[in-house]
Amino acid sequence: MAEEVGVSRQSVHGWLRRYADEGLVGLQDRSHRPDGCAHQASPEVEALVCELRRHHPKWGSRRIAFELGRHGCPEPVPSRMTVYRILIRHGLMTPAKRRRGRKDYVRWERDRPMELWQMDIVGGIFLADGSEAKVVTGVDDHSRYCVIASVVRRATGRAVCLAFAEALREFGVPEEVLTDNGKQFTARFGNGGEVMFDRICRENGIVHRLTQPATPTTTGKVERFHQSLRRELLDDVPVWPDIDTAQAAITVFRHEYNTDRPHQSLDMAFPASRFRPAEPGVVPVKLPASVTTPVEPPAWSELVIAP
């Protein structure tokens, strides 16, 4: 009989069961829509998602899902994709274009903190006097902990070394430092001499590693810090009144970045939970005299630093 009417035997048996249970009413067409949806959040959770997004417009779906679980969601925590769909449905997020993955991009990470720092310089601090200040930045490779975020009026070699020296005082001496080929860091493409930054590294036993030209992904962790800094702070302040105000705001951002911001690359852990400074003890750090004091000193002075 199924073949005669062009349907499957399962359909015929289903009709017979429905006729036996409900009569002719049971043979009416029915919706195939499922009774429920496994990934559909309740109205209460949906409202929480929207509220978090409105209070924190820079948070994405992954961060919102993390915060729901962190602070006790009243129901099972929705997945990142469920949060994403909620935000799209309520017009709180623009659908992102799908990006093709780069097969040649290799992720790497040092095994422990203080093994390698990545350093760089970023602009975007526009001041009321019409000038643009820079930020000297440094990130621990293993933990993503920001060890340097120093605003400078001009990113000279001395300004960069002063920021570097301050980080050495606070955290101790890393084994290696990775930078690009900027003239503040190296004379690789200059006269072949030794710049102040290279000299500090050599005198303190720090291996200074340089990226290949035009390879910004090599210092991807510090570049990722720059991206967050721009998107979450600098883009919202077109003009800063002065350097001190900018430095105070960036210091607050740096603290939040280190201690209260989950990182996807760390399985949503905080950098501060993975970072450990150098072992306690007195560490002698040799610095050029121009970095330690403006007074007439010998060519080199030794600064003893206690972490």
UniProtKB/TrEMBL annotation:
InterPro entries: Homeodomain-like_sf (IPR009057), Integrase_cat-core (IPR001584), IS481-like_transpos (IPR047656), RNaseH-like_sf (IPR012337), RNaseH_sf (IPR036397)
Annotated Integrase catalytic domain residues: 109-279
Pfam families: HTH_32 (PF13565), rve (PF00665)
Protein name per its UniProtKB record: Transposase InsO family protein
